[in-house]
Structure formats: C-alpha cells, structure tokens
Amino acid sequence: MNSTSNLNVLKLVILGSGGVGKSAITIQFLQTHFIEIYDPTIEDAYRKQVIVDKKCYFLEILDTAGQEEYAAMRHVYMREGDGFIIVYDISKISSFNQIESIRESIWMGKDYKQDVPLVLCGNKTDLNHRRQVSYHEGYLLAQKFKCKFIECSAKEAYNIEELWFTLIREIESQRCPKPKLKIYYKCIIL
After folding, report:
1. DSSP helix, strand, coil percent of the chain (3-state; round to 5)
2. pLDDT digits over 10-22, tens only?
C-alpha cells in the first residue's frame, strides 16, 4: 500500500520573476528557516505533509525559476499543478508588472480554464520603507484575477503558513464546491 494513499496529494507551484523570494517563502514554510543568500533556482521540488482544517494533505511543491531563460520549462508544470502562488516583491514594481504574463501562462497551461486555484502574494513586507507596490494595487489585481491576495515576509515568517494554507483551501473549495441553497417560497392562503 502506498504511504500517501490515505492523503490528499496536491501539486502546488510557486511562480514569479527572479529575486522575488519564491525559494525563501518555500524554505520558510518547509523548514521555518530564512535563507539570506539569493541563489537563482532552476527548479526545486519539495514534499511536506500538513493538516489543514482537520484534513491531511501531502504537498508536492515546485519552486520554479524566475529567470526568463527558463520560461520554456513552465508549460509542463502549469499543466500538472493543482494550485499556484504568484509572488512579486513589494519593493520592485518591475516584478509586479510581470504578474499578468505569468497569469496568462497559467491559463494557457490549463487550456484557459477559468477557475484555476491561485493566490497572489506580495512578498518582502519587511521592506515596507522601500515599497513601490501598494497593498491596494495588489488587492485590486487579485480582484481582477478573482483570487485571494496575501502580503507576507519570508524573512520575518509573516503570513507564510497562511499563504500556503489559503491555496490549499482554494483548491479544496473548487474540488468540493458548497451546494447552492435553493430557496422555496410557500404561499399559505387562509
């Protein structure tokens, strides 16, 4: 028997331009440790078992390359991912400006399926004094994408677990949508 047979296996993908902190967010979540040195990632895969809302999940996390020269690799994990986190650096407007094209890549990989579980993440709130992207701008873009929005700091471990758990909840809500209540009106004639 496979050890993951009783678990919900989820493939999560973290995306964003180079240097926004994708690896730092991932390592902080997995190991509660902040990596100081920026070492460009080509592609790293991790596994972690978590319990969210009393349900056990086995996560397969793919930390992707942000550099443009690795963009050709994206279509494979776009197709296979169950949910996505798109990260930008709040202190670099250029990283925010690339979000729309990353979102488009996800859509293409999912054959333009509308309801792809997605969380938009503004990282590096510890650099608030150098902020170039306001909270409101991030929030409005998330509204446009119809997805959740979270700001975090991998360095300060602020909102890291909440970021990943929010994505898991988004995947779960799309897998098991809440039934729509039907309201019946009954007229009683006296």
Report:
1. 40, 25, 35
2. 999 999 999 999 9
Give whole-number Cα distances, 56 to 5, 13, 73, 128, 160, in Å: 11, 19, 30, 35, 19
> Is there a contact between 109 and 75 (Cβ–Cβ < 8 Å)?
yes
Residue 48: what are its φ and ψ, rounded to 5°? -155, 140
Element containing residue 102 per DSSP (H, E): helix 99-109
Position 185 in a domain: no
Number of domains in the chain: 1
Range of the domain at 112: 8-175
How buried is 24 (Cβ within 10 angstroms: 0-12 exposed, 13-18 middle, 19+ buried)?
buried
Q: Are 21 and 95 in contact (CB under 8 A)?
A: no
CB of 8 within 8 A of CB of 81? no
pLDDT tens for each residue of 75-109:
666 778 999 999 999 999 999 999 999 999 898 88
Contacts of residue 130, Cβ cutoff 8 Å, sequence gap at least 6: 91
Give domain status of residue 182, yes or no.
no
Q: Is residue 136 part of a domain?
A: yes
Q: Distance between CA atoms of 9 and 82, rounded to whole angstroms?
A: 9
Classified as helix, coil or strand, 61 is: strand
Tokens, residue 11: 């493939």
The residue type found at 117 is P
